[in-house]
Design goal:
The chain is of the alpha+beta class. 36% of the residues lie in helices and 25% in strands. Strand 3, helix 3 and strand 4 form a beta-alpha-beta unit.
Length: 307
């Protein structure tokens, strides 16, 4: 049996069984030390898988830190320290300088620091970040309760449109197109939500693979049914313009587009905070599965091995 036959998530389940660990399977692993909760997570970016050599290295450095911070935030925590393992060919040193200046800018923005790492030679560039954060209260994917509302931060689908635009390699991009590209190359982890998530969220996940697949993780782990209303899913003006221009369906981008790094979370309606850009997109109910306007929703997001 090949990995592609069970997919990324099937493989994670097998590894979880081999290691017989209960801590595997959330955005971060919560570790208790001296009655404090620390969060551990790791995420990597690999050339030709997550980025192309022609991308600005500063942006790659920014993004690899951001995607790890995003997992810490979705667990209700703040980022503290990171280790960076870099594997790369014999490139110009200036490339690595630029990559690390992006890493440094991101760490300053998020309030964390790189405290070590590893270097190895390889055919392609691979950047692996291990991150540690801390939390007052660990928020998992498993705490959603029937009666909660389902929320997302920001707008969805922008990063997928940005990636497509970037791969067009056009000479000239319009203003709204540049904004979408920026959403793909320089996503910002939602540290402005840390307090809110940590205080009020019953369950939370960051949207790295796409709403249609990430919502299933909350549904499966919380053993609840999620009912999403299609017309409530927040779409940006830029994505509307993009879809109009190319004859595409923005909802499709919002559902299947990965790498938005927005937050999907649940809590009672009276915890809604009008000062944050959150939208109620549906309800948490008794039952199982994820439904879109009453129809079972199939996961269409990113799976490393099923593509
Ligand atoms: Mg995550
Ligand atoms: Mg990860
Ligand atoms: Mg992640």
């Amino acid at each position: 049996m090949r990995i592609s036959q069970i997919g990324e998530f099937g493989l994670i389940e097998r590894l979880k069984n081999i290691l017989s660990s209960q801590l595997i399977g959330d955005d971060t692993a919560p570790i208790q030390i001296d009655s404090k909760t620390f969060l551990l997570t790791t995420d990597s970016m690999i050339e030709d898988r997550h980025f192309k050599r022609f991308y600005p290295p500063q942006a790659i450095g920014w993004k690899v830190i951001s995607i790890n911070v995003s997992d810490v935030v979705s667990s209700g925590g703040t980022p503290l320290y990171a280790l960076v393992s870099l594997a790369l060919p014999d490139l110009e040193v200036s490339y690595v300088d630029a990559l690390y200046s992006g890493i440094k800018t991101a760490c300053e923005f998020y309030g964390c620091q790189v405290v070590g790492g590893n270097l190895a030679k390889s055919e392609k560039i691979s950047i692996d970040v291990f991150m540690m954060g801390k939390a007052e209260r660990f928020v998992s994917r498993a705490g959603a309760r029937p009666g909660d509302k389902l929320y997302v931060s920001g707008t969805l689908g922008d990063a997928k449109a940005g990636l497509e635009l970037l791969l067009f390699e056009k000479k000239h991009y319009e203003e709204f197109e540049l904004k979408l590209i920026e959403r793909h190359t320089r996503p910002t982890a939602r540290i402005d939500y840390i307090k809110h998530i940590s205080k009020y969220a019953n369950a939370c996940i960051d949207l790295s693979d796409g709403l249609s697949s990430d919502a299933w993780h909350i549904s499966n782990m919380s053993r609840v049914r999620l009912s999403i209303k299609k017309d409530k899913i927040p779409i940006s003006q830029e994505l509307y313009l993009f879809c109009k221009k190319h004859g595409k369906d923005p909802t499709q981008y919002a559902l299947s587009g990965g790498e938005d790094y927005q937050l999907l979370f649940t809590h009672p309606k009276d915890r809604y905070n009008p000062f944050l850009d959150m939208t109620i997109i549906g309800d948490v109910e008794e039952g199982t599965g994820v439904y879109l306007n009453g129809e079972l929703m199939h996961p269409e997001g990113f799976d490393h091995f099923k593509l």
